[in-house]
Amino acid sequence: MTVPFSIPIKDLDYCLEQLLNHKPPRILPPDTIQHLCHTLKTQFLSIPNIMSLQSPISVVGDIHGQYHDLLEIFQIGGSPPDTNYLFLGDYVDRGYYSIETISLLLVLKLRYPERINLIRGNHESRTITTNYGFYTEVLNKYHGSADVWNYITDLFDYLPLGATIDGKIFACHGGLSPSCQQLDQIRAMDRFKEIPHDGIMADLVWSDPDVEILDFKLSPRGAGYLFGSDVINKFCNDNNLVQMIRAHQLCNEGFTTYWKGKCLTVWSAPNYCYRCGNKASVLEIIHSNYETTNNKLQNDQGVLPGQFFNVFEASQENDEDTIKGKSVNGINSDPDDFDSTNLSNNNINNKDNYNDENDFFASYFQERPRRQQHVEYFL
């Protein structure tokens, strides 16, 4: 039985300090991660399968353990005290910092519950994380113990499956399902389980759009489906939607638009796997006032009015990881650091320096120099 309780802000800020103020970032100890996951489960229990969110909001695609590029996203889009975020899943695997990436997002979700919104991707799965890096990273960084992997993958079962934005846009990780015509079918599902091999839940995290087809077609991924223009048009019409936003597919330019903006893919892991050389993006939605449309903008750029893709390159640390990383960068060099952030310990070092008025995360980004790299805006 899950017993609800909360974590003091000063403890959460201390966790943020461990992750942000050290290079490489310090991993949080198992007891702390267990505490974070247990607390978040109680929050997610009350969140529906499809969250109802409002603009303005920034939508983030796959991150895949690229921790320093996640910090770039906050540097570009603003820190959570001031910016609403929707993350579309695939937080772990592939990159060298899956532990640090998911730890930061979990702490931020607890610290700013109304600003940080997380949904489930196909990599938020026990099977996938066993094969694509997260499980091995946990073993390497936690001295052969899989406890942290168990805590976090158990939490993945609680993540919502999608979101609507202003009631007009549907966001999920992958795509549509031939078994689902109405959003209410998703709302009625039991999501608190491992992602199954097939069915609506699997299709939501595995499917992809395909401009060459009209209907559904089996996906070459071996899970989910390809869906075409007739499918997306009917789904939007039947559910009073104007658009679908998803992630799940690598985009060389950081994003892809389909069917004149009816479907958008946002990809947020630049130089994916430290070798693809691709750009990344964050989709910023300022408003959804689509009564006054600008057809030229919509046709030329593939986005609706009030939306733009903020495109960025890989961080400098991403390039350094390419040379030095090999999945060991996040290991604490001092064994004594391993227990220093246990939230159940009342003697956390310096935690009395934190208080509700001292927003550590916001101040961290205020003190960082603005990135000099040009940021492309697609209006």
UniProtKB/TrEMBL annotation:
Which family does the similarity line name? Belongs to the PPP phosphatase family.
Its taxonomic placement starts with: Eukaryota, Fungi, Dikarya, Ascomycota, Saccharomycotina
Where does the record place Low complexity bias? 342-351
Kindly report, in one word, the top-level EC class recorded for this enzyme. Answer: hydrolase
Fetch the InterPro entries from UniProt: Calcineurin-like_PHP (IPR004843), Metallo-depent_PP-like (IPR029052), PPA2-like (IPR047129), Ser/Thr-sp_prot-phosphatase (IPR006186)
Keyword vocabulary terms for this entry: Hydrolase, Manganese, Metal-binding
Q: Segment Disordered: which positions?
A: 319-351
Q: Name one GO molecular function term.
A: protein serine/threonine phosphatase activity
- Sections of the chain in a coiled coil: none
Q: Where is the signal peptide?
A: none
Superkingdom assignment: Eukaryota
Which reaction does this enzyme catalyse, per its entry?
A: O-phospho-L-seryl-[protein] + H2O = L-seryl-[protein] + phosphate; O-phospho-L-threonyl-[protein] + H2O = L-threonyl-[protein] + phosphate
Domain (Serine/threonine specific protein phosphatases): give its ranges.
119-124
Natural source organism: Candida verbasci
Enzyme Commission number, as recorded: 3.1.3.16
Instruction: Reply yes or no: does the keyword Ubl conjugation apply.
Output: no
Its name, as the record gives it, is Serine/threonine-protein phosphatase
Keyword Hydrolase assigned to the entry: answer is: yes
